[in-house]
Specification:
The chain is α+β, with helices and mostly antiparallel strands. It has three domains: 71 residues; 93 residues, Ribosomal Protein S8, Chain: A, domain 1 (2-Layer Sandwich); 71 residues. Helices cover 71% and strands 8% of the residues. It has a four-stranded antiparallel sheet with strand order 2-3-1-4. A hairpin with a 5-residue loop joins strand 2 and strand 3. Helix 4 runs antiparallel to helix 11, helix 6 crosses helix 7 and helix 6 crosses helix 8. The chain is elongated. Keywords: Cell membrane, Membrane, Transmembrane, Transmembrane helix. It is found in: Cell membrane. Its main location: membrane. One of its GO terms (molecular function) is protein tyrosine kinase activity.
Length: 287
């Protein structure tokens, strides 16, 4: 009987060291006030801070452009001239103001309408609108082909216009011959086919002219659907969301603190744990 009793001691020791669901619930119940009051206090402080933040205003512009233009909006090639033009880097470096400005610029290209929506935030409606206008003006300049690229496009445009004119003139002469009663049936059929081919050549040349003209013009004011707006009201900050997020984060940290403190208390009461801690300190050379 004594042997059986001794054999159950290790199991009893293990059961004493296990953390049950009741232990967790007990720990939460004993620290409920700290958990609730601490989390609510963090939420209230965050809510109070959100009311002290400066108001921001948004200017919105819509233009016919693709994702490439949207990506170009936040590059140094666009932002640096805007910063210099508006004098935004009086007391700070250009790099700092550039990074700050990137955070205030939002772009979105519609999947169906392919329209680029530009949204700029600033501390005043006038500043937001001025930044949006300056961004668009810089985009217009950068989208226009320059140098050898522009010369090549202009040359192609001249050739396309010449083909369109020549095809139109020849087609007009053939049409007069087709309308003449002196043309034989065989000759009429050949001239009709030639006339159709000339019309096709003229149509292709006209389409190429349109494409080349668009490429030469780039993104310009003609593609502007909505000019940058002048906001009359400040944007609504997400104060409630900020407060709720603060409550959740504070709750998480408080839970970690409570369970870590409870674990340390259990370790202090456990002689085996005390011995292990002493050995760890000795191994690390700690007193």
């Amino acid at each position: 009987m004594e042997k059986n009793h001794n054999s159950t001691l290790p199991f009893a020791h293990v059961e004493q060291n296990e953390v049950s669901l009741l232990d967790i619930l007990l720990t939460l119940a004993e620290n409920a006030k700290l958990l609730i009051i601490g989390s609510l206090l963090a939420g209230l402080i965050t809510l109070g801070i959100s009311y002290t933040l400066p108001q921001t205003f948004e200017s919105v512009a819509v233009i016919q452009a693709d994702q490439t233009t949207a990506s170009l909006m936040t590059t140094a090639a666009v932002l640096d001239p805007v910063i210099a033009q508006l004098g935004l880097s009086k007391d700070e470096s250009v790099e700092f103001v550039r990074n700050l400005l990137r955070q205030k610029i939002k772009t979105a290209v519609g999947r169906n309408d392919k329209l680029l929506t530009l949204t700029v935030s600033a501390l005043s409606p006038e500043q937001a609108q001025a930044i949006a206008l300056a961004l668009l003006q810089q985009i217009y300049l950068l989208n226009r082909p320059q140098g050898s690229v522009r010369a090549r496009l202009e040359s192609q445009l001249i050739d396309a216009q010449a083909r369109f004119t020549d095809a139109g003139n020849v087609a007009a002469n053939l049409r007069k011959k087709l309308e003449s009663s002196s043309v034989t049936a065989v000759s009429s059929n050949d001239q009709a086919r030639g006339y159709a081919e000339l019309l096709n050549v003229a149509a292709l040349a006209k389409n190429q002219i349109s494409v080349l003209q668009v490429q030469l013009e780039g993104v310009n004011e003609a593609q502007l659907v909505q000019s940058p707006t002048l906001a009359s009201n400040a944007t609504q900050s997400k104060k409630a969301l900020m407060a709720v997020s603060a409550v959740l984060v504070a709750s998480l940290f408080l839970l970690l603190f409570i369970f870590m403190r409870q674990t340390l208390r259990r370790m202090v009461k456990d002689t085996d744990a005390i011995g292990k801690l002493a050995r760890i300190r000795s191994a690390l050379g700690l007193k």
